[in-house]
Design brief:
With about 290 residues, the protein is of the alpha+beta class. The chain has helices at about 65-75, 95-100, 105, 120-125, 135-145, 180-185, 190-195; strands spanning about 1-5, 10-20, 25-35, 40, 85, 90, 110-115, 170-175, 220-225, 235-240, 245-250, 255, 260, 270, 285. A hairpin with a 3-residue loop joins strand 5 and strand 6.
């Protein structure tokens, strides 16, 4: 999918119902995802004195959230927020004035409520060992829960859980990342039913990953926006591993970032009778 004259091609995740807009009203929005940036980035990093430099798993203040919603969204370069390792190790950012979202496309993006909840600790432990309770449906429900990525170690004084950052389970904004459940539900063909009954940790079997269009075998890993709880850590985040399974890792790790957003409800697909319309070589064109 592309917007006219922007040279930006996005893929459709789906039509999402009951999405809450910034004014509190709910409606249906088209959710889309872009291909990855040229380089991989940390989800979040931190000073060595904060969670031992491994980052903080709170989306509303994550480094990559700021990159996406300040630099990338507004085609603005200057703050150098591009982290690629622990202890706030930075690398020069791309030229966002060239590869950021253009004005016409920016005006099509909805400002909506995203869900940043997660499993509780018991669920997280069983996630790796259970076939059914931690499938795409369970992940979808966990993302919309009131559990957060730090609640299991809030009382801990350990160096891996000392960030002092308040956790939230919703966020109002424009550019996020895919949910783990988006990845889970993207599986298709004859293996879909089998895979939807599996834990996302087991998507590297039964050809789940090879039939999941969000999977890219050339990536070292793809970030999602969902934190992972842990009894003694407050920096873990779910990601799609290179083998195709969903696992957890430290926020400072540099992985693929794929901007994801919801379009405003008044955005339409420009009509076209060409039978190839919507294919990779002839993408849908958006218009308001």
């Amino acid at each position: 999918m592309a917007s006219k004259d922007t040279c930006e091609t996005w893929r459709i995740i789906g039509i999402m119902n009951n999405i809450e807009d910034e004014d509190g009203s709910s409606g249906s929005h088209l959710k889309i995802i872009r291909e990855k940036f040229e380089k991989n980035y940390s989800w979040d990093s931190s000073d060595l004195s904060v969670n031992y430099g491994y980052g903080v798993n709170e989306w509303s203040q994550a480094d990559i959230e700021k990159v996406l919603n300040e630099e990338y969204l507004n085609r603005r370069t200057g703050s150098n927020l591009c982290y690629r390792n622990s202890n706030n190790f930075k690398e020069t950012c791309p030229d966002w004035t060239t590869i950021g979202i253009r004005d016409e496309a920016r005006n099509m993006i909805a400002n909506v409520k995203w869900h940043t909840g997660t499993f509780n600790e018991q669920w997280n432990f069983a996630f790796y060992n259970n076939n059914e309770k931690f499938n795409a449906k369970a992940m979808y429900e966990a993302e919309r829960s009131n559990h957060n990525g730090k609640e299991q170690c809030q009382a801990s004084g350990e160096q891996y859980c000392n960030d002092g950052v308040s956790r939230t389970t919703t966020w109002i904004g424009k550019v996020g990342l895919m949910y783990p459940s988006d990845y889970g539900y993207a599986v298709g063909t004859e293996v879909r039913e089998t895979c939807l009954g599996k834990s996302l940790y087991q998507y590297d079997s039964d050809n789940c990953m090879t039939n999941d269009w969000l999977y890219n075998e050339t990536d070292e890993g793809q970030w999602t926006m969902t934190p992972t709880p842990h009894s003694s850590e407050a920096y873990d985040v779910f990601f799609v591993y290179s083998s195709g399974l969903v696992a957890t890792t430290s926020a400072y790790m540099p992985f693929t970032v794929r901007p994801t957003l919801y379009l405003k409800s008044n955005i339409k697909i420009k009509p076209n009778d060409d039978p190839t319309y919507g294919e990779v070589g002839n993408p849908f064109i958006l218009e308001s």
